[in-house]
Write a structure and sequence with these properties.
It is a single chain. With about 325 residues, this protein is α/β, with parallel strands linked by helices. Helix content is about 35%, strand content about 25%. The protein has ten helices and twelve strands. The strands form three sheets. Strands 5, 6, 7, 8, 9, 10, 11 and 12 form an eight-stranded mixed sheet that branches. Strand 6, helix 7 and strand 7 form a beta-alpha-beta unit. Helix 5 packs parallel to helix 6 and helix 9 (about 235-245) runs parallel beside helix 10. It starts with a helix and ends with a strand.
């Protein structure tokens, strides 16, 4: 007789949590690059098979049965996270380090519609949150709403630095919420989770909102990557539309995204400034990096785009 699906899921989650805890004790560290850099590294002739745990759980390289640490293989098998690749085994998840936390997310390449993504944007988003909150931390008990949390980076960064806040993580992707919950537990961050599009059914006022929405046009419209219209900026604008009316007095939204610059004009900035004025908010808007994902400009969807800039938009209720 097979175990109920819920029991299997709970057991698999425990194995993934135990994997993160084991890796933390052993000092595991892996900085995840862009997909383009990742592809170039693993295409090298000497990277056909894994030689260490970072190759398995960072670079997603295949490995021979019995060639990796037996405890790591045990937890991966228990979680159902070992697959087959051309006669070798492979991990179906990656583990990346950021600050003093480890994050589990989808293996490379992220091709499935429900895959989760972690990469350079995760590191930049983390630094933006820390910079914005260092001078005025969230007060004890404040509701921190991580909208479109992905694997939980924003919530975990805040929860580790300011453990007295109340955290809610939402995402439209159930796999993302699952990984975010496991990552938060591994980081000793108490956080509630909700599978929802945007704010979902939560009607409470928000003291601090965090958002790192997708901002690239994805032909397959995968939730972790597709930013919709406005050359990928539509999801970003939609999040601001939902969140701004719900901010408390002096409430804040820390928004990290990308904006397509067309003929020198930043339409996203124009729309976000309009939303700030309509919701009685101040807005500090700046470019964090003037040019990222240049390879996207070769695609027809970006034929009119000069560059894609990374932006920070900090809203505060007056």
């Amino acid at each position: 007789m097979s175990a109920p699906a819920s029991t299997l899921t709970e057991a698999a989650d425990r194995d993934l949590l135990a994997l993160l805890q084991l890796l933390a004790r052993r000092g595991y560290s892996f900085v995840t690059p862009t997909p383009a850099s990742h592809a170039r590294v693993v295409a090298r002739p000497d990277r056909r098979k894994a030689r260490c745990v970072e190759d398995v759980l960072g670079w997603s390289l295949p490995f021979e049965p019995g060639s990796i640490d037996p405890e790591i293989e045990h937890y991966l098998r228990g979680a159902g996270m070992i697959g087959d690749r051309a006669g070798l085994l492979c991990s179906l998840v990656r583990v990346s380090s950021l600050g003093n936390a480890l994050y589990i997310h989808s293996a490379f390449p992220t091709a499935d519609r429900d895959d989760t993504f972690f990469g350079p944007d995760s590191y930049r988003f983390s630094r933006l949150i820390e910079a914005e909150l260092s001078d005025r931390p969230p007060p004890q008990g404040q509701l921190v709403f991580d909208v479109g949390t992905g694997v939980g980076v924003g919530a975990i960064v805040v929860g580790q630095a300011w453990p007295g806040v109340e955290i809610l993580m939402t995402d439209i992707n159930p796999k993302a919420i699952r990984f975010a919950r496991i990552n938060a537990a591994a980081a000793n961050v108490a956080a509630a989770t909700l599978v929802a599009d945007g704010l979902g059914a939560v009607d409470r006022p928000i003291g601090l909102a965090l958002a790192n929405p997708p901002y690239i046009i994805d032909d397959l419209e995968r939730s972790y990557r597709h930013g919709g219209a406005l050359h990928g900026g539509a999801v970003t604008v939609a999040m601001a539309v939902q969140i701004l009316p719900r901010l408390t007095g002096s409430g804040r939204l820390i928004l990290y995204s990308g904006s397509a610059i067309v003929s020198g004009h930043d339409e996203m900035e124009a729309q976000l400034r309009g939303l700030a004025a309509a919701n009685d908010c101040t807005l500090r808007y700046r470019e964090l990096d003037p040019d990222v994902f240049g390879e996207e400009l070769e695609r027809p969807a970006y034929a009119a785009v000069d560059r894609i800039a990374l932006i920070a938009a900090i809203f505060e209720r007056r």
